[in-house]
Fold this sequence. Notes:
- It is a single chain.
- The protein contains 2 helices and 5 strands; from the N terminus they run ββββαβα.
- Strand 3 (32-34) and strand 4 (40-42) form a beta hairpin.
- It is an alpha+beta fold.
- The strands form 2 sheets. Strands 4-3-5 form a 3-stranded antiparallel sheet. Strands 1-2 form a two-stranded antiparallel ribbon.
- The model has no long low-confidence stretch (mean pLDDT 75).
Amino acid sequence: MARTTLDASAFVNPGDEMHFMCPVCHEVSLEPRVLPCQHWLCQQCIITITDKRCHTCRVPYVGGGAVHRTLRAWLDATLV
């Protein structure tokens, strides 16, 4: 299985990892997914949350969310 999380040492600037931490599992995710409510979670949390509601605003969602292209591009540019 491909690696989907990172540790803080993968970032050029200390503290940058905070921008990419999933609000549910608090891991730095390589697979950010945006929900219809515009909040984001990592792909693994979207799959494993049983009540299918956004962790932040509690709005229900269906499916696995779309790739968060902006966050993904920023993540690619921020890594070592």
